[in-house]
Write a structure and sequence with these properties.
By secondary structure, this protein is an alpha/beta fold. 49% of the residues lie in helices and 10% in strands. The protein has a seven-stranded mixed β-sheet, sandwiched between helices. The chain has a two-stranded antiparallel sheet with strand order 7-8. A hairpin with a 4-residue loop joins β1 and β2 (12-15). The termini are far apart. The chain binds nicotinamide-adenine-dinucleotide and fe (ii) ion (FE2). Residues 40, 42-43, 46, 71-72, 97-101, 103, 144-145, 147-148, 150, 153, 155-157, 185-186, 188-189, 193, 196-197, 200, 257, 275, 282-283 line the site of nicotinamide-adenine-dinucleotide.
């Protein structure tokens, strides 16, 4: 089945196999004549990237790339990217990659025209209004993983390399104006990345669905996103070339990110400091901490999760759902404890403080405090 479509929600999306061939159209639509392709170091030499640069070149868009980008990208990567953007006289960004390449690419387009440090635009109150919106360069986003949904997000996650804190930088115009979702680009992901990113999408849908805020649109999207992950993540892991599964996982990733404006929760509040301090993979970290977070929230979400379980065809209500999550993790090879990702128990009080300062806390069904967060870290490590 060749799943294809042209969507305009939440932004303009060209969805389907081989849609990467439309990269020049996408740039034209976004008003970009001299793009800088921003990606991470790991992707820089892979055939999908080289071929995309070739496509750009053959359409007189040049083949400029900036790839000095770490997983969990930081402000040093950003400064270097902005310098490359200015030095090359670029007028827009092709953000290409997993969340790392996408987030940094979006930030290069954003920061190229700003005068304050990036931290001044953190997602706090209305800090985004400090930015000069007219100076934000247009963005075309091309995801190569299926998890973060950053391609349809208005924020980037940037790690402060000095304080080791992950900050969410927000501006409505950071939402890419055109997205190319080509499932074939995700076929070469290593298994561990397919699993980790897929579990990130699942975590976004689960936390958005569980958050107590009123947002029925997000609620519906999150529930269907959970179903897509349940049906198709095991298939994508089993057979990496299963393009139908890859397509549905790309949709699930975008659905998670669309839904989580309703709120995230403890999973992300824990995962952000762990990722920032230990440089673990974000989605895999979410998958490890998920069961104790579900348990903590049980009193507030038991009925809601029972409804989700029924929709997903799981019997046993909340318990059935929790059992399913544990089974899914072990089937996909997710480690049971954070220790297996290299996280020790010697910095728990520091991690707890960082988790409580994370904006994701706001969407957790049970109010988070130092006791329950520390207990979550102990249970997860
Ligand atoms: N902006 C948001 O809303 C949002 C949401 C969740 C997570 N994030 C952030 O996104 C980042 C994680 O992104 P991610 O999980 O997509 O991982 P990633 O972008 O860090 O990529 C992981 C690894 O996979 C490689 N890779 C990516 N695509 C590949 C492909 N098609 N073939 C082969 N290798 C490939 C990369 O080179 C990298 O080494 C974190 O920094 C996280 O904080 C952002
Ligand atoms: Fe996430």
């Amino acid at each position: 089945m060749n799943l294809t479509g042209n969507w305009s929600y939440p932004t303009s999306i060209k969805f389907g196999n081989e849609r990467i061939l439309e990269i020049a159209d996408a740039c034209k639509q976004a008003g970009i004549k001299k793009p800088l392709l921003v990606t991470d170091r790991g992707l820089a030499t892979l055939p999908i990237t080289v071929e995309t640069l070739g496509l750009m070149d053959s359409h007189n868009l040049g083949h400029a790339m900036f790839s000095d980008v770490d997983p969990n990208p930081n402000e040093k990567n950003l400064d270097a990217g902005v310098a490359a953007f200015k030095a090359g006289g670029h007028d827009g960004v092709i953000a290409f990659g997993g969340g790392s390449g996408l987030d940094l690419g979006k930030m290069v387009a954003f920061m190229a025209g700003q005068s304050r440090p990036v931290w001044d635009y953190e997602d706090v109150d209305d800090w985004w209004t400090r930015a000069d919106s007219d100076a934000i360069a247009p963005i075309v986003a091309v995801p190569t993983t299926a998890g973060t949904g950053s391609e349809v997000g208005r924020a980037s996650v940037i790690t402060n390399s000095e304080t080791h804190v992950k900050k969410i930088i927000f501006h409505p115009k950071v939402l890419p104006s055109v997205v190319i979702c080509d499932p074939e680009l995700t076929v070469g992901m290593p298994k561990v990345i397919t699993v980790g990113t897929g579990m990130d999408a699942f975590a976004h849908c689960l936390e958005a669905f569980s958050s107590p805020h009123y947002h029925p649109m997000s609620q519906g999207i999150a529930l269907e996103g959970l179903r897509l992950v349940k049906e198709y993540l095991p298939r994508a892991v089993e057979d990496p070339t299963d393009l139908e599964a890859r397509a549905h996982m790309m949709s699930a990733a975008m659905m998670g990110a669309t839904a989580f404006q309703k709120g995230l929760g403890a999973i992300h509040a824990l995962s952000h400091p762990i990722g920032a301090v230990y440089n673990t993979h974000h989605g895999m970290t979410n998958a490890v901490v998920m069961p104790p977070c579900l348990e903590l929230n049980r009193p507030m979400i038991e009925d809601k999760i029972a409804e989700a379980a029924a929709y997903l065809g799981l019997s046993g209500g909340f318990n059935g759902f929790l059992d399913y999550v544990l089974r899914l993790r072990s089937d996909l090879g997710v480690p049971d404890k954070l220790r297996e990702l290299g996280v020790g128990d010697n910095r728990i009080s520091e991690l707890t403080e960082m988790a409580l300062a994370d904006p994701s806390c706001g969407g957790n069904p049970v109010a988070l405090n130092s006791e329950n967060v520390e207990a979550l870290f102990r249970a997860s490590i």
